[in-house]
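Entry:
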Amino acid sequence: MSHLRVLLVLFAALLTGACHPSADEAEGKTMRVYEVPPDRASALVYSLNQALFAGPRPDGDSSQAALGKVSLGGHGQLIVVADASLHPSIERSLQAIMAATPAGGAAEPQLRLRFWSVDFLAGGGSDAPALRSLKPALDELRSAAGQGHFALRDHLESVSAVDPGRQRGVRRHWDSVRVGAEGEVVEQALGYTIEKADGAYQLALEFNDRNFPPSKHGAVDRKTTTSTSLVLGQTLVLASQPFVSPAPSTESGMRYYIIRVDPVASSDSGDAG
């Protein structure tokens, strides 16, 4: 039996014995942070979420309902939001798992995805200073596109774990100022999963880009969906699409979506999904 299956069985068994909250308790949930070995945090998040979804509703309804939610915090932290009556069982579950399934030496690292949306603008000018780390990739694009410079439109960093079978995925939202629109803020949305199969990492990414100059038809949304293999530490141009530069310029340009995925150092921390 795999470690993941063992975790799920232990969680389910221990949570089944937990008493369900009363109607008064069910009105709100409490948050607790649990410290676990960092190399095991992702598997524990997945298994605990599975177990918390597996119980009946507190009001006796036979349909399925989540009893709580777990997310990955900083280095080795599980952020658990659940009814207060469940936390003792959750704590006992974690202790039992640590004793029953000792950590192996080949655990998958957490992965930091960096995402850039950049525009190639023809003519003179310098690349945005924030794109300095992408210079080799941008120089290669420029050699094919001709004279011009790159402007940064959107940048996102997100920490996640290898996703078993695309069962969870990561979704991020942030505000961006629309190109060519004075002060207009749009919400950007990016979702992705990173899997590992036969020793190779695979990325599936979907980005609904709303940060395009307005056209005569109004605001523009363009969705990019792609899947590709990954080499950790490698800068990869995922996709490109044309756009019209904002007034007063009417030149056309090209937008590129670029990513890099790196293992998170043991001393590192940050947002996780």
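Helices lie at 3-16, 41-52, 87-100, 135-145.
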